[in-house]
Design goal:
The complex is a heterodimer of chains A (361) and B (510). With 361 residues, chain A is mainly alpha-helical. Chain A has 14 helices and 2 strands, in the order βααααααααααααααβ. The chains are: A mainly alpha (361), B alpha/beta (510).
């Protein structure tokens, strides 16, 4: 018989070491997978982790891409991590991201073709509000009817995807180009365009927002009583009630913060790098951000590093698709493996396997 | 009795854990039919010793002989086969199953349930332990649950019965019933190893006592020939001074509870029914009761973790029933729940962080929501210093402290806030004698300064030591408080509900 036993004192060092080990194991397992697909594993790993930044040939294109891909991941993951610390599991950031994008784009398209300085700030507010409201659905259902926020937020992702498709093909479709799905290109609408702040660097408003969010989260978690309450509720729910923390209020705050940040990420994406409300707008940032949050140990600084790494795999994935004709799904498998190895390593730092004989104690 | 060959001989038993020697060269004998007490403070090594006898722990050194044969149980089932049974302090019973099913689950080869029910009835009648095999365990009182555990052991016809602090969950009347049973077992030749730190009980029940201190045997003596004080001093290794309580007049009513009822949201929890009492400044109200009679619920509804209609609870004249814990703290009411780890303190947080947990409001540890960690740390340090909490510093996590030290910290954290009213549940549970004395003295000092103190406890000796007035919780009802002076143990027992379940069982015994 195999038994699981909780370790009395899980090693602190392992906590910080595990993300690095997980990356290493993913490289090995991923290499094996690429070899099984008939590709040179070393070349593929190099293409994913190394070439996007250091290669002469691709570097100038992919270096700015790193910020573009990592910013939404970091922005979403910072919000998710706050909830995860409190034991509130928002798995539907992808949905909040989509709704944020739709609301932001909706404001822009409503004003088109009026130009004005106030349009972009209004879009930011609309994006944040959209993500917030979408996250309030699981929050209110949980506090009112004690539903499971994991299921509700996850299922709402699929509702959001339907809504995205309906908008891209219907209400938000570009009326000037008959026949093509997708909205007007916001990159060609100056007041709504989330352009690079310094041309050619990938440094757009979303990156600024991500930096602010990281600092905000760091200060909140270490200095503010709200961050204290979040950690207390996650570690010892009864002690949290003794400290006067209202569980319902915490659910609303945590889902609200992650909804706002995911909505902002969607809005910055649709008005900048993507430019259009399209059927294929959702690229899985909301789900990948869950990996980023855990890989970054739910710590704002760790999330920055993890976000850059996962951003790298997005770019590297595209490169390897182009150069080695690897299937696009392979990179998703790769990201999934990363989370899998991390969770497995964390599990074995917290528990120990015991092999016992069949006899009853 | 000593003329017989000993039933169980222990010689030189030693067991070390990393950093601590739990048992150091312990030797003594238990004769057949003897009721042998094992005395000692928490952490003296009593549990480790009986775990070795019961096969849960292997000794590092030393040997045991049972009826002259070498005895080295590898696991509890070996011990049971050799005729050794044990009743644990914490019951391993399933609330949703009935008595017979629970007994069957603990047996190696249970007979069919119908036969088992008959046997349970026979044994319970024979030993005066009334119990209906068809009742759900979730509906039983703590005393009745203990009977389930004892009968489960008796069905195996043991030669040695080990009992770990059996009376901590019983009313005085239930203790009498238990003692009659134990004496009967002893007359029939069953030896009993009786673990306790209640000295009067041991003096009335046991013919021999082994006293442990710091893992070593201090003495084996006849407890009937020693005074309770002599035994206590052997246990603690120092002279004990009873707490001082200066005479003082009571002030105005600081906490008033009128007709407070509260339905429990847990199916096996206890609902509070029509609670009434008034607590005056400077008064210590002791609330007795067997575990599970509403103590937890009473603490929650007084501390503010559970809300009630606002005028049911009045603090310094103000209705506060609707306020949460922090609203009440601001007005001067603090509380310390029974469960230290997980309720009064967060296990993985440092003492500084735990000082913030309940001290934030009254000590002004946050400004505009931003925590002043330097001030919080200073607060934690002052609690540590004043209550002699043994720890390397406030950065240590709560989990790393021993039970007694953490208890001193969580009670001290509340006392340091100079409250107008303090409510504590089981303030010295699992705490050694000197730490317990510190905590009781601090509560009395606080009352001396004019605070109202409510002590909820299952330890009658403790309540009689500190309380000015006395009430008992029984199935969610609180008896009217009476002056503690002059109350006899018998009267207290009746206030606690007498012997639970006697009536129901008399019906089944026919």
């Amino acid at each position: 018989m195999i038994r699981l036993e909780k370790r009395l004192a899980p090693s602190k060092r392992a906590q910080y070491l595990n993300p690095f080990l997980a990356v290493l194991l993913t490289m090995i397992a991923g290499g094996l997978m690429f070899a099984a697909l008939g590709k040179d594993p070393i070349a593929a790993i190099r293409l994913i982790f190394f070439d996007p930044i250091f290669s002469q040939q691709f570097g100038s294109f992919s270096r700015p891409q790193l910020l573009i891909k990592s910013a939404p991941l970091i922005l979403i993951a910072v919000g998710l991590a706050i909830g995860f610390r409190a034991g509130i599991w928002n798995i539907g950031a992808e949905g909040q991201y989509i709704i944020g994008a739709l609301c932001g784009a909706g404001v822009a398209l409503a004003f088109y073709p009026v130009e004005g300085w106030y349009i972009f700030p209004l879009m930011v507010i609309a994006g944040a509000l959209g993500g917030f409201l979408w996250a309030m659905i699981p929050a209110i259902l949980k506090t009112r009817f004690n539903t499971n926020e994991i299921l509700v937020s996850l299922l709402l992702v699929y509702v959001a995807e339907r809504l995205l498709a309906a908008m891209a093909l219907g209400a938000m479709r570009n009326p000037d180009i008959a026949g093509f799905p997708g909205s007007r290109d916001l990159r060609r609408y100056e007041s709504a365009h989330n352009a690079d702040l310094i041309a050619g660097t990938g440094m757009h408003w979303g990156v600024v927002a991500a930096i602010i969010a990281v600092i905000f989260a760091y200060v909140m978690m270490t200095r503010h009583s709200l961050g204290y309450q979040v950690q207390l509720a996650g570690q010892a729910p009864r002690a949290a009630r003794f400290a006067g923390v209202s569980p319902a209020r915490l659910v609303v705050i945590c889902l609200g913060i992650s909804g706002v940040l995911a909505g902002l990420a969607g809005m910055f994406e649709v008005s900048g790098p993507s430019g259009q409300v399209r059927i294929d707008f959702a690229s899985g940032y909301g789900f990948t951000a869950i990996i980023v949050a855990f890989l970054g140990r739910l710590n704002p600084i760790g999330i920055v590093l993890a976000g850059l790494l996962l951003g790298l795999t997005y770019i590297g994935g595209e490169l390897s698709q182009m150069m080695l004709q690897l299937p696009g799904a392979a990179i998703q498998v790769f990201q999934g493996m990363l989370l899998f190895f991390l969770l497995a390593l964390d599990f074995q730092t917290n528990y120990r396997l015991r092999f016992t004989k069949g006899a009853r104690a | 009795m000593t003329a017989h060959a000993p039933l169980l001989q222990l010689s030189g038993l030693t067991k070390a854990y990393p950093g601590v020697v739990a048992n150091d060269d312990v030797s003594f004998d238990i004769g057949p039919g003897q009721i042998h007490a094992l005395l000692g403070e928490n952490g003296a090594g009593k549990s480790t010793l009986v775990k070795m006898i019961y096969g849960l722990v292997k000794p590092d050194k030393g040997e045991m002989r049972l009826r002259g044969q070498a005895y080295a149980p590898g696991q509890p089932s070996d011990a049971r086969k050799s005729g050794i049974a044990m009743v644990f302090q914490h019951f391993s019973l399933f609330d949703a199953l009935d008595v017979a099913e629970n007994v069957a689950l603990g047996m190696e080869n249970p007979p069919p349930l119908r036969d088992l029910a008959t046997r349970i009835r026979d044994v319970s009648e024979a030993y005066g332990l009334p119990l209906d095999p068809a009742r759900l365990v979730g509906e039983l009182s703590a005393g009745e649950r203990q009977r389930v555990e004892i009968i489960r052991c008796l069905l195996q016809d043991p030669k040695l019965l080990i009992m770990d602090e059996p009376t901590s969950v019983l009313t005085p009347q239930e203790v009498d019933i238990l003692f009659r049973t134990l004496r009967k077992l002893s007359d029939e030749g069953t030896a009993i190893l009786y673990i306790s730190h209640k000295l009067e009980e041991i003096r009335s029940l046991c013919s021999e006592a082994t006293i442990l201190r710091g893992g070593k045997k201090v003495a084996t003596c006849d407890p009937r020939e020693k005074s309770a004080r002599e035994l206590a001093e052997l246990m603690v290794g120092q002279l004990l001074t009873p707490p001082e309580r200066p005479e003082r007049p009571f002030g105005d009513v600081v906490l008033q509870v009128d007709g407070l009822s509260l339905a429990s949201n847990n199916p096996f929890g206890t609902s509070l029914k029509d609670i009434n009492f008034a607590l005056r400044a400077g008064e210590v109200l002791g609330i007795a009761g067997v575990a599970g009679n509403g103590q937890d619920e009473l603490l929650l509804v007084l501390s503010g973790e559970l809300a009630s209609p606002s005028d049911r609870v009045r603090l310094l004249g103000q209705p506060v029933g609707h306020l949460g814990p922090n609203g009440r703290r601001e007005l001067g009411l603090v509380a310390a729940p029974e469960e230290r780890l997980g309720h009064a303190a967060a296990p993985d947080m440092s003492l500084t962080e735990n000082a913030y947990l309940s001290g934030a409001h009254r000590k002004g540890l946050a400004k505009n929501g931003f925590i002043d960690w330097a001030k919080t740390r200073a607060f934690a340090e002052s609690v540590i210093a004043r209550f002699d909490v043994r720890t390397p510093g406030p950065h240590v996590v709560a989990r790393a402290l021993s039970g007694g030290n953490l208890q001193k910290f969580v009670i001290g954290r509340e006392i340091e806030q100079n409250p107008a009213v303090i409510i504590v549940n089981q303030p010295t549970w699992g705490v050694d004698a000197s730490a317990a004395a510190t905590i009781r003295q601090a509560l009395l000092d606080l009352a001396g300064q004019g605070a109202g103190v409510v002590v909820i406890s299952q330890d009658l000796d403790e309540l009689l030591e500190v309380a000015d007035s006395f009430a008992a919780l029984n199935e969610g009802r609180l008896t009217p408080p009476r002056p503690a002076k002059g109350l006899t143990v018998d009267e207290i027992g009746l206030m606690m509900g007498g012997a639970h379940g006697m009536h129901a069982a008399e019906g089944t015994a026919q």
